[in-house]
Structures are given as C-alpha cells and as structure tokens.
Description:
The protein is α/β, with parallel strands linked by helices. It has 14 helices and 13 strands.
Amino acid sequence: xxxxxxxxxxxxxxxxxxxxxxxxxxxxxxxxxxxxxxxxxxxxxxxxxxxxxxxxxxxxxxxxxxxxxxxxxxxxxxxxxxxxxxxxxxxxxxxxxxxxxxxxxxxxxxxxxxxxxxxxxxxxxxxxxxxxxxxxxxxxxxxxxxxxxxxxxxxxxxxxxxxxxxxxxxxxxxxxxxxxxxxxxxxxxxxxxxxxxxxxxxxxxxxxxxxxxxxxxxxxxxxxxxxxxxxxxxxxxxxxxxxxxxxxxxxxxxxxxxxxxxxxxxxxxxxxxxxxxxxxxxxxxxxxxxxxxxxxxxxxxxxxxxxxxxxxxxxxxxxxxxxxxxxxxxxxxxxxxxxx
Length: 340
C-alpha cells in the first residue's frame, strides 16, 4: 500500500508539474522583460505555476537550440523566441526549426529606433547586437538614399556608421544615456522603460507592423515614423531595389516572430496554453496591464500564429537571400550563410 501511495503521489506530482518557459537571454534583457509581463498575466488564469528558465548565449541562439534538442519533448516546456532568433534562422546554421513547433501565440510587435534629440547623426554611432540587422539596413538607406547597388550601400554604411560590437544590453543603454552612442533601438516594452523617459532622446524610425497579406502598416503607438514614410519624405520616392528587398525579408522575420511562444507540435498542453493566452488577450484587466508596459499591439494566437510562420516562409527568395548574406558579411561582419 505504501508503494502504491508513493506511486500515486509521484504520478500526481508529474500531472501538476510547473510549466517552464525558456527564454534565450539573461534576466533583464528585452525578451526576458516581455516574458515576465506576459507570464504574470497568464498565471492569473492557470492552476499550474510557470517558472522562467534563462539560457543565454551568443546571439541568443543556444537557448533555442537547447529547447529543440533537449527540452521540447517534455510537455511542460515552452519556448519564448524573439526576433533575433528569426534573423539567425535566416542566415545561420541553427539547430531549431519553426516547422517543428505549434504556435501558442505571438504579439505582432515592432522595433523602435531612438536617437539623441537634435543629433545630426554624423556619423551614426550604434551598438550592434542580436536581431539588430534590420536597423543597419534602414539607417543605411535613410542616410544614403535610393538607386544604389548593394556594393554602393556597403561603402556608404562604412563611411557613415560606427557599428560598435561587443556591448551588452545594459552597456548599450548606458552608453546611449551618456551620449557615447547617438542612436539606439528597443522592443516596445523596453523602449517605454529605457528610452521614452529620457528627455534627451526622441523617436528616429520604426519598421511598421507586419500584416497577414505581407504588407507593413504604420505603428499607431509611434505614428508617422515608419521607415518607408520617412524615406519617401526625405528622398521623394519610395524605397526599392535589392537592399530594400533584403531589408523587407529580414525585418519581417525579425518583427513577425519578435515575441512568440512555442511548444513542440503535438504537445497535449497546447490547447490549455492557447486558451490561457487568449484570456490574457481578451480580458480587460490583463489588456490594460500589457498595454501599460508594452503599448497597443495585436495578439496572434494558435493557428493564426502558425499561419504567420507559414507566411514568412513564402518571403524567402534566392535574390533577397543573396543580398542579405552579402551585406551582412561585407558591412556588418557577420558570418552569414546562404541556406538556399
């Protein structure tokens, strides 16, 4: 009887085990902050506890690789990925594969670039980091104008941008506050926390909100600052050409998957997690808490999240990938590979 009781206790403990959300960053980083906000709200509608496991590493890849290789077969493990993972999926030989997962949900977010108020950005002083490739493309085109070849844009980037490598997120934010960097970027939650309160900072540009038809629209939290709007205002034409096509590809993967929650395909807990996240997305009290920290952004939950992933895969083309890899290697010094 004692053996049976212990066995029942063991089985019961498994059934009510905590969920573990893996975040591929250190505590305090942008995705870590977002996850804490969302988990706090999800916890209000769940009996099980949620713990956060941080697995940081170079370009935030090791955490997602670890989920794919070590943790995803455990039905209680959940992956929180971000835009940098989407960028790395495009241009590096990572082990994770979005096709192997079921989307719990994602927030249709944006990245906001800020600058020192009144700065002429001559040159642009910007800290590199995970997922920041689209900012390099946007600032290059804004500075250098239309009708240039990728080779000409590489030259213009090198002449006009100081691309500072090796800074942590905390170091980057401190350097911007001190004026050692004249430009920065953050996800919406981190922008509201770290940049918006800075009276010496102002919005520079943002990338727009990805739509399910593949277009991007202006971010109503920061209206009028979408890259395409500013480019046309400055140069008199809409951006176009090979570098712009590569930019659209990489920014769509980065922002289209910027804050996304996944389990392995077939995970029996997927329905519970989707239901819980839907409560967060539709309950006024939780909506208010999320918007206070992040801003007004749309949730894309369950099968709609899978559809977003599938849409992004259709954006990949040989020409855009060739330009992406070329600019990343020659301008940014990234060891990009062409996976086509």
